[in-house]
């Protein structure tokens, strides 16, 4: 009777393993689609800063026409 708890470990291990597999699948699919890991908690401020950074990088790498 002392090993009855082990009967519950197999299904719990399967459930925990499948949760890990699903989480990793989401991570790798998102990284393959977008080229980088997903930013957790991405709010409007973060989106605005990403747009600003992208615009600044494009401006810095663009050839200057002031010559």
Main structural class: mainly alpha
Q: What form results from the Cα inertia axes?
A: rod-shaped
What does the main sheet amount to? none
Classify the helix fraction into a percent range: over 70%
- Which ranges are low-confidence, i.e. pLDDT below 50, for 5 or more consecutive residues? none
**Radius of gyration from the alpha-carbon trace, in angstroms:** 23 Å
What is the overall number of helices? Answer: 2
**Can you write the helix and strand succession as a string?**
HH
What's the rounded overall pLDDT mean?
89
Beta content: under 5%
Count of β-strands: 0
How would you summarize what this structure contains?
InterPro entries: NADH_Ub_cplx-1_asu_su-1. By secondary structure, the chain is mainly alpha-helical.
Task: Fill in the keyword field for this structure.
single chain, 67 residues, mainly alpha, 2 helices
Reconstruct the topology from this structure:
Layout: H1 5-34, H2 44-61
Family: Belongs to the complex I NDUFA1 subunit family.
Subcellular location: Mitochondrion inner membrane
Main location: mitochondrion
Please describe what this structure looks like.
The protein has one domain (3-61). 72% of the residues lie in helices and 0% in strands. The chain is rod-shaped. It is built from 2 helices and no strands. It is mainly α.
């Amino acid at each position: 009777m002392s090993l009855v708890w082990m009967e519950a470990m197999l299904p719990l291990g399967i459930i925990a393993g499948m949760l890990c597999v699903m989480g990793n699948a989401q991570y790798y699919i998102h990284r393959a689609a977008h080229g980088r890991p997903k930013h957790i908690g991405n709010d409007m401020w973060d989106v605005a800063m990403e747009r600003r950074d992208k615009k600044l990088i494009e401006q810095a790498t663009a050839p200057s026409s002031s010559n």
